[in-house]
Amino acid sequence: MKELPAFCSIHPYFRVKPERMDSFSQLMTDFVERTQNEEGVIFYGFTCHGNEVLCREAYINAHALLHHLDNVADLLDEASKIAELTRLEIHGSEADITHLREPLAKWQPDFYTFKLGFIH
After folding, report:
1. Which InterPro entries does the record associate with it (predicted)?
2. Cys-Cys with 91: which of 9, 48, 54, 96 at CB 3.0–4.6 Å?
3. Average pLDDT of the residues in 17-45
């Protein structure tokens, strides 16, 4: 068993207008295509439950996470026209959370500080 390595994860939850799920599905494809070549991405993917969509994503540090948000800013703007951001969770070390509080404040995220864990 190894100690869990440090990383930042961000988990935006969207409620998509039911009649716009097809459009949001295309946006998901666009997000994935745009993100797959970014440096510092650990994982990135979408899960759906009806018209509720969760993007599970992790980055090596706060800097990589902020770079990603800058890279997909136009897609986030498009998403906001057809979906509501209902929850935003940010998980990371105290240092990364401190770095992210101000730049992410406009989205009113819930910040979670890593305490204990492992990886196999």
Report:
1. Dimeric_a/b-barrel
2. 9
3. 97
